[in-house]
Sequence to fold (377 residues):
Amino acid sequence: MQVPLLDLKQQYVSMRDEIRATIDDVCDSQYFILGPRVGQFEEDVAAYCATPGACGVSSGSDALLMCLMAEGIGHGDEVITTPYTFFATVGAICRVGATPVFADIDPVTFNIAPAAIEACITSGTKAIIPVHLYGQVADMDPILSIAAEHGLVVIEDACQAIGAEYRGRRAGGMGDYGCFSFFPSKNLGGFGDGGMVVTRDESRAEKLACFRNHGMNPKYYHALIGGNFRLDALQAAVLSIKLRYLDQWSTARADNAADYVDLFEQAGVGDLVQCPAAAEFTTRHIYNQFCVRLPGEHRDAVWQELRDADVGCEVYYPVPLHLQECFRHLGHNAGEFPESERAARETLALPVYPELTHEQRIYVVETLTHLVRQAAG
Ligand SMILES: *Cc1c(COP(=O)(O)O)cnc(C)c1O
Fold:
């Protein structure tokens, strides 16, 4: 049996006619940048996230960058975030010239630990970027109260968490900004790059709309220095169609995750394979990834053997950001963020995409169980 990590073709085939028709419409209109289709998709996403406004942008990375720019964050400023995230979170902070300050993660959710944030705050701190990794929202209430107490901006990196809920509230709508990515492998993926920023604040929404188009308003008059962070009409048209199916897909992912938990339990592997858990505050986990922990020192070996057995799997992420070569100037050492470093050593993402079958999950569990038992001796 072969089990890919992700199979986007099945999804496409199931909605091919609808997608082709909308692409045809965009081609017939020859209206490719922003315009009514982007406007419609922004309304759809704002409604989905229960925020008044949304601003379509070129990618999740640009969404993060643009929020920092809109807040005027730059040289001399500090932004607190997690070292256990995709590069773009920290890349955005550095690109505006600010300094990333890392707070270690909670080992259960893999998200920034609120208790670690307080110690990072200095007179230079301007913002906190919690990341909702793998589809589970970070513990937002304490983060929001720390931010309120110190006058900090909160930018949610919800790139992996569209539709996820924290105590009944949707990802992206709790902080000052929420950033989403429509990279093809996210739960809502486009036919290329795309992203979105949501915000509850009208003046911020206006500024974002201006920033994404070179800070231009009206045409050829620039009060701000923005950039080209625009979303394509083709992406918006495809994403508007796919958004209608998002809840169904995210529910299927969560069902697959629950089935894995049952199957690993039945396999009796105990602590050799530790399944991800939803925190008590998580009212909806959307499982962009299903990452198990393989404690011990054999994750890399098992990862290779599982791939050899035709099970797609991946490590998100093997090197925590404080140890990346490009951030060496920040002066961090191994051992400084032990939970992030342990997660980087132990986690392995298994296939959890909506169309995955029960038989495929059984194969994944049986194969992995066999391999970890062998590795553990
Ligand atoms: C995917 C992702 C991004 C970047 O999104 P792009 O659209 O690929 O630029 C940022 N942060 C996290 C946590 C992500 O998973």
Notes: The radius of gyration is 21 Å. The chain has a mean pLDDT of 97.
